[in-house]
Amino acid sequence: MPRKPRQESSTELYHVTSRGLNKSAIFAQNRERSRFLNIIMEFLNEYNIMIFAYCIMSNHFHILIKAPIEELSAFMANILAVYAIYYNQKHHRIGYVFDGRFRSQCIEDESYFFNCLRYIHLNPVKANMCHSIEKYHYSSFQEYISPTPFGIINSKGFEIIKNRFESLEHFKEFHTFSTDKVFIDLPEDELMQRKSIASNLLDNMQDKLNIPAIDILDYIHTRNIYDEMIKDFFHISMKQAQTIRQLIKEELEQKGQG
């Protein structure tokens, strides 16, 4: 079956991610993360691209990049291929390293751009890899706050941040805000993003109806309304909406609210 053509962004901005085959921790060691960043740097000037954010996790990575679709594909193919060779040689193995082709999400407006940048930077905190994004050394947040940046972020990125935020403190504060947008990630992380947003929808419904959240999920009428709300908000199937609702209910019961 032929691959679907990659969706093209009108702004040429993309959120890109890829993970290790079989969820393998292909960036488990700091030197592996550093090597991947160095590979990115090696190819920066060969392609018509600009990188505005990145984060290297233990089994996947995120990049916020501006590029024509053909340049994006060529750039990603090269950095993934070179890292795969390095990784296989280092671990005395053969075969695929990454799980299929990279995934991409179109960034079509300024709001989505900044929310995506923040989401990428917050990945290590959400994964409990660090308590503060300022302490994580393999994301672009370090470049934005450091007097001696690593060299991956395009100079236009620093201009964008300077024009958007009054100070470095305001930039840091921005990373404490939340959003109702969902960003591509590992499937389990995308589910948790939707669950968090759906929990906020439930809180709003609870305030409006003035009944406990657990009762909304128990009563057939309100439960059906809530399922429809989740389905329409995320543009997902009813079965997926019901899965999210069930996760929220289980969490409420575990907290003693059942």
Task: Walk me through the structure.
The protein is α+β, with helices and mostly antiparallel strands and 258 residues long. Helix content is 53%, strand content 10%. It has 10 helices and 4 strands. The chain has helices at residues 30-44, 69-90, 110-126, 140-145, 155-164, 168-174, 187-209, 213-218, 220-234, 238-254; strands at residues 13-19, 50-56, 60-66, 103-106. It has a 4-stranded antiparallel sheet, with helices on both faces. β2 (50-56) and β3 (60-66) form a beta hairpin. The longest helix has 23 residues, at 187-209. It is globular. The termini are far apart.
Would you tell me the structural class of the helices and strands? alpha+beta
Task: Compute the number of strand runs.
Answer: 4
CA gyration radius, whole angstroms: 20 Å
> Uncertain runs with pLDDT below 50, 5 residues or more?
none
Give helix % range.
40-55%
In short:
The chain has helices spanning 30-44, 69-90, 110-126, 140-145, 155-164, 168-174, 187-209, 213-218, 220-234, 238-254; strands at residues 13-19, 50-56, 60-66, 103-106. The chain has 258 residues and is α+β, with helices and mostly antiparallel strands. Strand 2 (50-56) and strand 3 form a beta hairpin.
Keywords for this structure?
258 residues, alpha+beta, four-stranded antiparallel β-sheet, 4 strands, 53% helix, globular
Write the layout of secondary structure elements.
Elements: E1 13-19, H1 30-44, E2 50-56, E3 60-66, H2 69-90, E4 103-106, H3 110-126, H4 140-145, H5 155-164, H6 168-174, H7 187-209, H8 213-218, H9 220-234, H10 238-254
Antiparallel strand pairs: 1-3, 1-4, 2-3
Helix pairs in contact: 1-2, 7-9, 7-10, 9-10
